[in-house]
Request: fold
Amino acid sequence: MPDASRPMPGAASLLPLEISSLRYDVGEDRLIDNISLTIDSSGISVIMGANGAGKSLLLRLIHGLLRPSGGDVRWNGSALNLATRQRQALVFQKPVLMRRSVAANIDFVLKSRDGQDRQRRDQLLQEAGLYRQRQQPARLLSGGEQQKLALARALATEPEVLLLDEPCASIDSASTLQIENLLRQTRERGVKIILVTHDIGQARRLADDVVFIHAGRLREYQPAATFFDSPKSDEAGAYLQGRIVI
Amino acid sequence: MKSRTRLAALLTLLSLFGDSHAVADSIIVQSTTSTANSGLYDYLLPLFKKDTGITVNVVAVGTGQAIKNARNCDGDVLLVHAKSAEQKFVVDGYGVSRHDLMYNDFVFVGPPTDSARIAGGRSAIDALSKISTHKARFASRGDNSGTHKKEMALWKKSAIDPTSASGSWYLETGSGMGATLNAAVGSGAYTMTDRATWISFKNKQDYSIQVEGDSELFNQYGIIMVNPEKCGQVNQAAARQFVDWMLSAKGQDAIAAYRLNGQQLFFPNAN
Amino acid sequence: MQDFSNAFGLAASLIFSADADLIEIIALSLRVSVSAVVLAALIGFPLGALTAVAHFPGRQTLTVTLNALMGLPPVVVGLLVYMALSRAGPLGWMGLLYSPTAMIIAQTILVAPIIAALSRQVIEDIHKEYDEQFRSLCIPAHRVMTALIWDSRYSLLTVMLAGFGRAIAEVGAVIIVGGNIDHLTRVMTTAIALETSKGDLALALALGFVLLILALSVNAAVYSLRASARRLSYA
Ligand SMILES: Nc1ncnc2c1ncn2[C@@H]1O[C@H](COP(=O)(O)OP(=O)(O)OP(=O)(O)O)[C@@H](O)[C@H]1O
Ligand SMILES: [Mg+2]
Reply:
C-alpha cells in the first residue's frame, strides 16, 4: 500500500479533536448521548464497544457526514467545514464502490485531487494486493478485496486523518497483518488514525489509546495499556472477557 | 441580435443531424389531399422536373389547413378547391392571382342497404333531405376543407341544419377525406367525396356511388402563387414556372392524360 | 379480416424486396428519431441528475412539471414547433419548416421530458447509494452529477429506449412540422397515416409491422448490451 516515505504536508495539524456534549437523536431515541472527549495524541485511537453501541454513528459525526442534534465537533479549534473534511478520509463499514473497474475507482479519487496519475494508482493497487484484478469490475471483488480497495481509495486522498470502520471485518489473517503493517507505516508518517474494531487482538496490537462506548455513552478513554490491563467500567471489562452486558 | 446568431448557430448544428433542407431549387406546394392521394402528383411532378429541374415538395392537407399554412407563408404555391376561400386569399393580398386549373365532381357514396333510398338519384339536395328525414347516418369531413365547405353549402340550399344532429346520425369526423371514408365504411354511413379520392380509395368494401351528375356537385380546383410581397421567402421564379407549366398546354394535357384504374380523374379547364 | 393476412405477406415482400422507397423512409425515421433521442438525452440527463441530486428552490415544481410534460400530446408539440418555425413565426427566417431538422426539434421536445423524468428516478437510486461516499470524499457537485450519469449509463440506455419508442411511434408532431413530403420528410408513421387515408389498410398495416420489427431490433440490441453490462455488475 502507500509508501511510508511520502511526506505528509502539515501532518496532524488538525489535532486536537474536541468533541463536546455531542448528541445525536433519531425521533425519541438518543443514539449518541452527551459524549465529550478530546483526542490530542497522534497515533492510533481505537474505538470499541458492543454492536449497536454507536461507534459508526460517532465516526460519521466526527467526519461531518451527520449533523449533531446537540454539542459540536472541532478539529484544531475550527468547526467542521469543507477544508477540514477534505483532509480526512473515512472507510465505511460497508464499502461503497463505484460501478467501474478496480483501477477506475482509484482514478476517480486521484483525478479530484492532483490529477490522474497512473503510477500512483498502480502503486496503491499493488500495495493493496489488487494489482492483478485492476481491470475487473470492482463490484465483482470478494468482500475482503472490496474492503482493501476501499482502504486503498481512502489512502489515495492522502488524508491527514484516517477514519476506519472495521476495515478488517472480512479479511483473512495474512491480509489483516498486511493491513496492520500498512496502518503502522501510515501512523509513522504522522497520519492520525481513528479505528473502530471488534478484534481485541488487533486493538491490542495497534492501539495507542482506546475509546470505549456503551449504549451511546462514553465509558472510558484511556491509554491502551491501562485499558487492557484494568478497564474502569464494568461494561468494558465484560466486553473484553466476551461477556454480554445489557 | 447576438442571441439570434447563437440560436442560428445551434440550429445549423442541428441541421447537421437533419441534413436540413431540400435541393436549392425547390418549392413547397400547399395542396388539398385528393390531388396527392390519387397519385396525380406522382404522375405530373416528374414531368415538370424533367422540363425545369425544379423539385416540388407537396404538403397535402385539407383545403382549409392548406390555405391557413399558405397565409403563414409556409408555401410557394397553393392548390386547393374552395373558390370563394381562394378568392378571399387573393383579395387579402396573400395570393398573386387565382386560376382555374381543372375540375372533377363530388359523388355520394353509401352502403348497399341504402336505408334512405338515395341510390340512382341525380339531385344532391334531394339526397340530403332523404338522409335527414330517415336520420340515416352521414359522415361529414367537419374540417373546413373544400369538400366540407361544399357539403355545408348543399345543406344550406336544402334548408337543413345537420349540425343540430351532430353526434347522433350526423357524424363530423374532423379529418381528411380518406379517414372520413374509412369512418363511413366502418359505420355504415353515407358520405360525400370527390371522385378522384373515391376512385383511388382502396377500402371501399361493398360501398358504391349512389348519387352523381348533379351540376351542384361540380368541383373546381384552383392554383395560386403565394404573393412574394406578403411572403418574402417565396421562391418566385420557381413558383411562377410551376403555375405557368400547370396552366400551359403541356401541363393541361398531362392532367388529362392521368388515369387511375383506366379512369380519368381530373379534367383540365384553364383558360 | 382479409386485410390482416394480406398485411403479413405484404410486409414480408416489402422487406425482402428491399424496396428503395421503403428503405429511404426507414432510414429517415431512424435518423430523425435517433438524433432526437440523443439530443433529448443531452438535455434530459443533466436535468434528471439535477432534480435527483441538487436542492434548489423550485425543485419540486420542476420535477412535477417534468412528470406532467411526459404526457405532452405530440400534436401540441407539433403545433408549437410549427408556429415557431413557420415563415410567419419568430424563427421563420431560418427556413427549417418541412425539413428533417424540424422533425428532430419536435421529437426532441417531445422526448426530453420523458428522459429527464425517468433518468431522475434512475439517478436518484444510485445517488442514495453513492451519496455518503461522495460527501466523504468531498466530490464537487458537477463531478457528482457526471459520475452518477456515467455510472448509471446502462440503466439510462433503457431510459433512452423509452424515449426512442415514443419518438419512432409518434405521428402527430412530425406530420405537422415535416409535412409528410415524399422523399423529403416522409417517415414510417406518416407513411402509415397516408396509406390509411388512401384506404390501403393492408399496406398501412404492413408498414406497421415493419415499424414493429424496427423497434424490436433496436430494443433487442440495447437489451443484449445491458445484459452483458449486468454480468459485469456495471448495471
Ligand atoms: N438513521 C438511524 N435511525 C435510527 N436508528 C439508527 C440510525 N442509525 C443508527 N441507528 C441505531 O443506532 C445504534 C448505533 O448504530 P451504529 O451503527 O453506530 O452501531 P455500531 O456501534 O457501529 O455497531 P456495529 O458494531 O454493529 O457496527 C444502532 O442501534 C442503530 O440501530
Ligand atoms: Mg458499526
In short: Chains A and B do not touch (no CB pair under 8 Å). Residues 1-12 of chain A have pLDDT under 50 and may be disordered. Residues A 55-56, 93, 165 surround magnesium ion (ligand 2) (CB under 6 Å). DSSP finds nine helices and ten strands in chain A.
